[in-house]
Design goal:
This protein is an alpha/beta fold. The chain has one domain: L-arginine/glycine Amidinotransferase, Chain A (5-stranded Propeller), CATH 3.75.10. It has nine helices and 15 strands. The protein has a three-stranded mixed beta sheet with strand order 2-1-15, with helices on one face. Strands 3-4-5 form a three-stranded mixed beta sheet, with no helix packed on it. Strand 3 and strand 4 form a beta hairpin. Helix 2 packs across helix 9. It is globular.
Length: 334
């Protein structure tokens, strides 16, 4: 799928040096999302408080570890009114872009639609010195059954202005097309199935793109043509492939995120389960790229059905009053 070309396609760094995170207050298993997320398990009756407390402890440890690795972390508190059990996963409702664009996305669960917090975007401007020049609000698409869940549904190669999207109940072809038109991106759509033959609910469980490394489970793509097309496109855009096995998806090995520290070093963030699920050679390849942040997320993974990457919303917005931090950088990938 090709988006129409503008007169100039803005250059953008592939990895971010700032992330937004939402500290959960009402974390739990969401029955509205369980039908399309096979990674998610319900919370036993009477355990709700303990599970929410454990999730907060996991969140705090991850936020501290990412910050210690040299990445700017903007932490905001979740609300209790209304309670939103999946608020710890902000990457599904918003994405931030180097030209100052903010995108709000149409999510499948009605309860999850309450997570959208324009006030937090305003806080990135007022308290963290960022600049917003355009807002693309796609939330009304949900009323037509057109679902697209942010950087869960879309895995960006920002340097190439390309996105990858695995079809699922949370990633609709038409919604992808409309997004691509508004953002002036090319998109590769494909099917991805887990070991049981069920569509993987989010593309970012199948793959992640860093600055020259693609961690991807090609084995999850049943169509050989689509599989070969994705692999060829990744290589043509300058990515080495770190291929995952299908069984590694259940350990969230694909749900990692490469960031960039304030000293320019690559920082790969993943959960303890994901790190342990990788083999020695795969772990070594990540370590050679720079710093590796490993943090236990057992509670969030088990009951939320998402992992480290889902908890991190990359902030590519330019800084206010200075030259754009990401946009137009001389060293940004072309």
């Amino acid at each position: 799928m090709n988006a129409p070309r503008g007169t100039e396609r803005p250059r953008e760094a592939r990895t971010a040096s700032t992330v937004m995170m939402i500290r959960p207050r009402a974390f739990g298993s969401n029955p509205e999302t369980a039908g399309s997320n096979t990674f998610q398990a319900p919370v036993s009756a009477g355990e709700e408080g303990a599970v929410a407390e454990a999730a907060r402890a996991e969140f705090d440890a991850l936020a501290a570890a990412v910050r210690a690795a040299g990445v700017e972390v903007c932490v905001f508190e979740d609300t209790l009114d209304p309670p939103v059990p999946d608020a710890v996963f902000p990457n599904n409702w918003v994405s931030f872009h180097a030209d100052g664009t903010v995108v709000y996305y149409p999510m499948l669960s009605e309860q999850r639609r309450r997570e959208v917090r324009p006030d937090l975007v305003a806080a990135l401007v007022s308290a963290h010195g960022r600049r917003v020049t355009r807002t693309v609000d796609l939330r009304a698409l949900a009323e037509e059954g057109l679902i697209l869940e942010g950087t869960g549904s879309l895995v960006f190669d920002r340097g190439a202005r390309r996105a990858y999207a695995a079809r699922s109940p949370r990633t609709d072809d038409e919604a992808v097309r409309l997004w691509a038109e508004r953002l002036d991106y090319d998109v590769l759509l494909f099917d991805a199935l887990d070991a049981e033959g069920t569509p993987v609910y989010h593309t970012n469980v199948v793959m992640n793109l860093g600055d020259g490394l693609a961690v991807v489970c090609l084995e999850a793509l049943p169509d050989v043509v689509e599989r070969d097309t994705v692999a060829a496109r990744l290589r043509a855009d300058g990515h080495e492939l770190l291929e995952l096995r299908l069984d590694q998806l259940t350990r969230f090995c694909g749900n990692l995120l490469e960031l960039r520290a304030n000293d320019g070093v690559a920082v790969t963030v993943l959960s303890r389960a994901a790190h342990e699920g990788l083999d020695a050679d795969q772990r070594a390849r990540l370590s050679r790229r720079g710093r590796v942040v490993v943090s236990p997320l057992d509670t969030i993974e088990r009951h939320g059905g998402g992992s480290a990457r889902c908890m991190l919303a990359e902030v590519h917005l330019p800084r206010r009053g200075t030259h754009d931090e990401e946009h137009g950088r001389a060293d940004a990938p072309r």
